Amino acid sequence: MLAGAGAGYLAGSFASEEPVSYGTGVEAPEIQISRLRNELDELRDRMDEPRGAVIAPRERSASSPDQDALKLAVDAWLDENLEALLAERGEQVSVADASTTGKITTPEEAILALQSATDWDEQMAAMQAALDAGILDQVIEELERRAAAQPDSEAAQMELAAGYMQKLFSTSNPIETGNWAMKLDSTYDKALAINDQSWDARFGKAMSLSNWPDFTGKKAEAIRQFEILREQQRSSADGPGFDQTYLILGNMYQQQGQLDKARAAWQEGLDRFPDHAQLREQLGGGN
């Protein structure tokens, strides 16, 4: 569950970390990734060659549908197994190593950091690093390709959503902002079509819609999505971000002038999270 930590980021907070230093003899993550990528490219080259023949790279023809399918298969395998391969070699690449140190320089490295993320903040740290490196658009193009190639993968849709989210936050042009917001919403819909119990996808959709301007009428749909989340949470064990559902739903009811519903949402949240200071404050409990 990755989206729970995202409310703070949507409000503009973003934690920074100290750069990670490497001791003598320790291979930096970006070098590890580059080396493994070169090895994979060599493997692909060998797989492209007909049996019993040696063909120089410059003599090869444009990729065929079979070769494209093979590339997708190899990419998918690498996505799932790269960390295991590194572990077998006694090596490790983490989001902190790759993204917070500013070492991401290629789309592949950014996507690896995204897929290695353990929470929403780490996902966005990877995308922020891609933005800082000037490769966010390339990352999004690759994530779009992967999502299209894996239409039944909730994970692929959610990774694409992280890219769209970063693009949305980094765009100031109102027209472009609207376009990215619609792409983001559509991606969450695709994830929910795959798994309508996905907390991350529904929370992301609800938060995204809640930030649309009032004149668009999207806030009513945001409230409906938070209400669905609340209902799903009633039959689930506590999870990261569950408290935010009650807090934000109550706040949105309050904005709509529905004070009784607002207090009921906050109270339900406080009953479940009795030490939650913000819920208590909203109910007038003070300190």
Structure description:
The chain is an all-alpha fold and 287 residues long. It has two domains: 1-10 and 28-40 and 63-195, no CATH class; 199-287, Tetratricopeptide repeat domain (Serine Threonine Protein Phosphatase 5, Tetratricopeptide repeat). 66% of the residues lie in helices and 0% in strands. The protein is built from 14 helices and no strands. It has helices at residues 6-10, 29-48, 65-88, 95-98, 107-116, 120-132, 136-149, 154-169, 174-194, 199-210, 218-234, 242-255, 259-272, 277-282. Helix 5 (107-116) runs antiparallel to helix 6 (120-132) and helix 7 packs antiparallel against helix 8 (154-169). The longest helix has 24 residues, at 65-88. It is elongated, with a radius of gyration of 22 Å. The model is unreliable at 11-29, 49-64 and 89-101 (pLDDT under 50).
